[in-house]
Specification:
Oligomer: single chain
Largest sheet: 5 strands, mixed, barrel
Radius of gyration: 17 Å
Strand order of the largest sheet: 1-2-3-4-5
Helix content: 25-40%
Order of helices and strands: HEEEEEHEH
Number of domains: 1
Number of strands: 6
Structural class: alpha+beta
Shape: elongated
Distance between the termini: 64 Å
Strand content: 25-35%
Low-confidence stretches: none
Length: 133
């Protein structure tokens, strides 16, 4: 394969990937989302975002900045006003990570750390307290 053919193929593949992420309904139209195989990612400025599989729409999702999180209900509210409920244990979802990678690119972000274990620990402790242990 010639370099020019490879460049065209790479550009075409990037266009397909770019088109595979779309805008989402406004929070007024979709106020709550249940995330499965979820993660919480932290940017260098401290902002944290939910990332995972949107069970209702069957797609990857990356949220706006998390404002509050209640480990007892497993629910958090983001800057957009949307409520996210974390279902099941934390875990990587390929579509969610693809959406997160696109979010990072669109927002000129280059670094993040996965702080999901902090949230999973909070949830686990809340469950123990709720169960009387």
């Amino acid at each position: 394969m010639k370099n020019s053919d490879f460049s065209k193929l790479t550009a075409s593949a990037q266009m397909i990937l770019d088109a595979s992420v779309w805008s989402v309904p406004a929070p007024d139209d979709q106020p709550e989302i249940v995330l499965r195989r979820w993660n919480v990612m932290q940017l260098p400025n401290g902002d944290r975002h939910f990332v995972g599989w949107n069970a209702g729409d069957r797609e990857g999702r990356a949220s706006t900045k998390i404002i509050t999180f209640d480990p007892t209900t497993r629910r958090g509210i983001t800057v957009s006003g949307r409520l996210y409920e974390l279902e099941g244990p934390s875990g990587r979802d390929g579509d969610g990570m693809h959406t997160w990678a696109r979010w990072m690119k669109v927002n000129d972000a280059t670094e993040f750390i996965d702080v999901s274990s902090e949230y999973q620990d909070l949830i686990n402790k809340a469950n123990l307290s709720k169960d009387g242990f």
